[in-house]
Design brief:
alpha+beta; Rossmann fold; OB fold (Dihydrolipoamide Acetyltransferase, E2P); six-stranded mixed beta sheet; five-stranded antiparallel beta sheet; about 35% strand
Length: about 350
């Protein structure tokens, strides 16, 4: 039995339909992410699980128990808010132990629990420090410790890293994933950051306009998005208008700049037939061929239109001979590999197995 089960959940705010027939299951010990743009309903869904919002329709169970009449403070969940909600006038230890103030534990037992929670998040010895003197990353750890000290079955995280700078955010992504494995409880994360969701999650539900567009593992979402909209939202993707024709039992793709080739059924997202369509391919599935390198897969000639140098990687915009618009390819920068300038002629290799066929725009 799944730890969290949602079936047919609908939520309205007046006439606005915020959640539309949401059904999903989240397993115990899973790191699950709700991913989507602002306003897609992911935070509303998280707050519904927490008990801060009441669905207008549908059933929500946690650990087999119907949550319809269970208030937020009696659910086996705890929440880390985007703002952290740290009390600035309290010490770190007082913040972390705030939820224990009405427990039956003795003062010594509470102190041991607080100390253990602080050690868990890497803040051992910080108990006496004033909360207002902490950095952003330290405040995030305090919020985590305060939530985990109550030993919830589910930890709900509402964009907890959004206020951190890039370097601290990347560090906390790794630490959060390690912490989840360490404590072994279910984490449900809300984020609009695709990279963050891919790095941290066991599974991801991509949401648009109150609906789940696709629910899958990070690898399946990235390599086999079930729609053009999901493909565009998860990472970068080249989208090339073309068409498919039938040759006996075989579908043949006609892709401007890349040519004609057989399309295997696994590359189709919706069982498309002959007609106009859009071909998707990731930038890393296309690569420039430099002198002395042997191309793999298929290759075509083209001209570099623009490049963006990122240090470890260079992204090239290449107009293929016979193409109608530039495509993007990404190249790992090596000491022996030059960085091409706009206007350079080049050869681009690509893997037909990386193509995905979407419906026409």
């Amino acid at each position: 039995m799944a730890l969290i089960s949602l079936s047919g959940i609908d939520k309205y705010y007046g006439t606005y339909h915020a959640l539309r027939d949401i059904s999903l299951e989240i397993e115990g010990g899973e790191f699950f992410s709700l991913l989507g743009p602002s306003g897609c309903g992911k935070t509303t869904l998280l707050r519904t699980i927490a008990g801060f919002e009441t669905p207008d329709k549908g059933v929500l169970t946690i650990d087999g128990r119907d949550m319809a009449r269970v208030s937020a403070n009696r659910r086996p969940t705890n929440m880390v808010f985007q703002s952290y909600a740290i009390f600035p006038h309290l010490t770190v230890a007082q913040n972390v132990g705030f939820g224990l103030r009405r427990s039956d534990l003795t003062k010594a037992e509470k102190a041991r629990e607080v100390g253990a929670a602080l050690e868990m998040v890497g803040l051992g010895g910080y108990g006496a420090r004033a909360a207002h003197a902490l950095s952003g990353g330290q405040r995030q750890r305090v919020a985590l410790a305060r939530a985990l000290i109550l030993k919830p079955k589910v930890l709900l995280l509402d964009e907890p890293l959004s206020a951190l700078d890039k370097k601290m955010r990347e560090q906390m992504q790794s630490e959060l994933r390690q912490l989840q494995r360490q404590v072994g409880i279910t984490f449900v994360l809300v984020t609009h950051d695709q990279e963050e969701a891919l790095i941290m999650s066991d599974r991801i539900a991509v949401m648009f306009e109150g609906e789940i567009a696709q629910l899958a593992t990070p690898q399946d979402l990235y390599l086999r998005p079930n729609s053009r909209r999901v493909g565009e939202f998860i990472g970068m993707m080249n989208l090339i208008p073309g068409r498919m024709d039938r040759d006996g039992s075989q579908m043949i793709g006609d892709i401007p700049g890349l040519g004609r080739l057989p399309i295997v059924p696994d590359l189709l997202t919706d069982g498309q037939g002959p007609g106009d369509c859009t071909f998707g391919i990731r930038p890393e599935s296309m690569s420039l061929v430099f002198n002395g390198e042997l191309p793999t897969g298929k290759f075509v000639d083209g001209t570099v239109v623009e490049r963006a140098y990122y240090g470890d990687m260079t992204y090239y915009e290449v107009l293929l001979d016979g193409g109608t618009a530039p495509v993007t390819c990404s190249m790992k920068n090596l000491v022996s590999r030059p960085v091409l300038d706009a206007g350079a002629r080049t050869r681009l290799a690509w893997e037909p197995g990386a193509l995905i066929v979407f419906d026409a725009a």
